[in-house]
Amino acid sequence: MEKEEPAPAMDKQSNSHDSTVDKVSDLTVSELISMPALSQQTTSMPSFPSSLPPTAPSPTNVYGPKSFNFAEHHNINYPDKHRHRRSLDPDAEQHLYQKHHRRRSSNAAAAAVYGSSSSSGMHLETRQSQNYYHVDKDKWILVTGGAGYIGSHTVLELLTQGLKVVVIDNFYNSSEESLIRVQKLVDGTLEWHNVDVLDAEALSTIFKKYDIWAVIHFAAMKAVGESAQIPLSYYRNNISGTINLLQCMQTHGVKNFVFSSSATVYGESEATPVKETAKLGPVTNPYGRTKLFGEDILRDLYNSDHSWNIVILRYFNPVGAHSSGLIGEHPNGIPNNLLPYVSQVVQGRLPYLRIFGNDYPTIDGTGVRDFIHVCDLATGHVKAIEKLAQRPGCVAYNLGTGVGYSVLQIVHAMERATGVSIDYKIEPRRPGDIAVSTADATLANRELGWWPMKQLDEMCEDMWRWARRNPGGYDGMVMLSDSGEQEIGDDLDMDD
Predict the structure, then answer these.
(1) For residue 228, which of 432, 485, 406, 460 has the smallest C-alpha distance?
(2) What pathway annotation does it carry (predicted)?
């Protein structure tokens, strides 16, 4: 639940990569390795929990019958295209290969575990033969708040999947620069407009201009502490804005909806890992109440009209950044969890880290939380779009790793990533804080075919790469390479 702390990492067994997985793609790994800019890639399979088999047939592609062709998708053999991606350094090219490789392995493993049945009694391999419809790639996905932290990473992933995306954002706590940089990472059909979800007339104009298939709704104010100081602003933006959007969708006949919710809806539950069936509330802050009430609105809407298809995603503590270092969390507000504070200490923006309590019944006495990489969250939203194509009704899923990390484990991981010793001070516990909070994401594993792929060290490394190369975020700053050379922007002032 979006609280500032994290259990020791669960032991995971690395499974060898069986040749069966390679057959999922049109190209073999050996063919991929032989291509320019990929000759130095490794082909090791990512780690899975020991209970997961390493290989399986590929699940059905809900976008249509055509199988995925890596070279065609990324235009590797067509250097005149994708001029933005071609300009990236080898690390960015390596990211493209590794991301596709992880996705193939993850989907294959999910199909092996759940291919025989799901909670609804369907076979993954035969879903296309069921009475479902496909994600219409000729239509648009509308992403509200798409210039924000999670929104921009999700837009990137949607474009990577070949979907057309239109973003609306009022840029209150985000930057248009994030979308410009998304275009540097992937070629695709992306448009955006400065529109507030509270502006019904402007919203209607967007729905008239674009043939929209589904909406992913991120646009909201999001700081727990701030919500207690300006509650009316939170209720107006987060609740009235959601109602405004839903009314506009209903008017224009768009009834596929993905809602960005939060683990705060579970309140101060002592149960861990938390299942979706856990009791919701009581929630003690206005931000969490807006998310819980938003969920209630969606359940009431579906109960009144079963033609709606709604996926609610409750995520725990989003951290990290895109591995390219081009997009990440814009530091123009109060951080929502521990890692941004740790990063600010490393950068010298804070003198030390405040740790609240060291007498919890945990591995080292500090609180334990479930942290999830923002790119894994982005993949979860794409899986949610695919779920809408199965007409699910109104369903909620946890998105978390199921692995908890203590505050001190986070501190030590950031020290490894940065090479900097991090000062901290122990302070008394805060009222309402609980010892451990982790997600049970079994339902998302089973029904969405979604698995988080990134572990703690990678979260910290990616976050530090973003913070180091973009010391002031997006606004008026340069982007620095790892060597400290200027890449993007105007002037650099480390005191800003």
Answers:
(1) 432
(2) Carbohydrate metabolism; hexose metabolism; Carbohydrate metabolism; galactose metabolism
Pairing of strands 404-406, 368-373: antiparallel
Q: What is the DSSP string of 140-204?
A: EEEEETTTSHHHHHHHHHHHHTT-EEEEEE--SSS-THHHHHHHHH--S-EEEEE--TT-HHHHH
**Interval 236-275: pLDDT, tens:** 999 999 999 999 999 999 999 999 999 999 998 888 999 9
Reference 225, options 284, 296, 292; nearest CA is 284
Model pLDDT for residues 365-382, shown as the tens digit of each residue: 999 999 999 999 999 999
Does the active-site annotation cover 266? no
Q: Which of 287, 360, 397, 474 is catalytic?
A: 287
Picking from 201, 202, 156, the residue whose alpha carbon sits closest to that of residue 179 is 156
Q: What pTM did the predictor assign?
A: 0.72
C-alpha to C-alpha distances, 174 to 75, 147, 177, 179, 375, nearest whole angstrom:
31, 6, 9, 10, 18
For residue 135 the two structure tokens come to 């994600």
Contacts for 239 with CB less than 8 Å, ≥ 6 apart? 290, 293, 294, 297
